[in-house]
Design brief:
The complex is a heterodimer of chains A (114) and B (114).
Chain A (H helix, E strand, L loop, with lengths): L3 E4 L2 E4 L5 E7 L5 E7 L5 E8 L2 E5 L6 E7 L2 E6 L8 E8 L9 E2 L3 E5 L1
Parallel strand pairs in A: 2-11
Antiparallel strand pairs in A: 1-3, 3-8, 4-5, 4-9, 5-6, 7-8, 9-10, 9-11
Chain B lengths: L2 E4 L4 E4 L4 E3 L1 E4 L5 E7 L5 E7 L5 E4 L2 E4 L9 E3 L8 E11 L2 E6 L3 E6 L1
Parallel strand pairs in B: 2-12
Antiparallel strand pairs in B: 1-4, 3-9, 5-6, 5-10, 7-8, 8-9, 10-11, 10-12
The chains are: A mainly beta (114), B mainly beta (114).
Chain lengths: 114, 114
């Protein structure tokens, strides 16, 4: 059973388009996250949701809009895609939002903007 | 702000060699510390963690000790295998105003040869 799954795995699109990435976790966790990994493999948090409430928004352009329809799902919608948005996007989840709780990561979505 | 510094890679070792990957951190308060591993084309997997000073995390032959006095969390393994080839990320977790986020180091690529 896949604990944290993301769709699609690969996404190739042109500049200016709008796209969405979906994330689902079956671990029963109440906190979910989006991270961005750039071409140098540096990872940085973008958003965090706890019980469907946005609790972390790390200076991400407002072209990026996360949505959490329920505790098990966290989607990422990106408007007007730019070349610099090309990266691997990882979804993660944890049970609670205390720092002692480890985060479980999905397989990633590789976004390529041409 | 919080930060994590890892030794530069790539690191190339022969099978059965001893591994050390250095990690130091800067944080306010008392963060939890983690090592994650990323195999080629995959998401991140938790390797080990430590949540307070002097704790030792261990898993699959890897160990790391939370050293508050030197703000370090170095990863060690006594005898590496080819299957350990991956990118290793040191990270700290700190709760911030109700949210929890991982701050990652830049990652260290390990290549183990026969």
């Amino acid at each position: 059973d896949t604990a944290v799954s993301q769709t699609p795995k690969y996404l190739v699109t042109q500049m200016g388009n709008d796209k969405s990435i979906k994330c689902e976790q079956n671990l029963g966790h109440d906190t979910m996250y989006w991270y961005k990994q750039d071409s140098k493999k540096f990872l940085k948090i973008m958003f965090s949701y706890n019980n469907k409430e946005l609790i972390i928004n790390e200076t991400v352009p407002n072209r990026f809009s996360p949505k959490s329809p329920d505790k098990a799902h966290l989607n990422l919608h990106i408007n007007s895609l730019e070349l610099g948005d090309s990266a691997v996007y990882f979804c993660a989840s944890s049970q609670g939002n205390r720092d002692t709780y480890e985060q479980y990561f999905g397989p990633g979505t590789r976004l390529t903007v041409t | 702000g919080d930060s994590v510094t890892q030794m530069e890679g790539p690191v190339t070792l022969s099978e059965e060699a001893f591994l050390t990957i250095n990690c130091t951190y800067t944080a306010t308060g008392y963060p939890s510390l983690f090592w994650y591993v990323q195999y080629p084309g995959e998401g991140l997997q938790l390797l080990l963690k430590a949540t307070k000073a002097d704790d030792k995390g261990s898993n699959k032959g890897f160990e790391a000790t939370y050293r508050k006095e030197t703000t370090s969390f170095h990863l060690e393994k006594g005898s590496v295998q080819v299957s350990d080839s991956a990118v290793y990320f040191c990270a700290l977790s700190a709760s911030t105003g109700g949210g929890n986020k991982l701050t990652f180091g830049t990652g260290t690529q390990l290549k183990v040869e026969l």
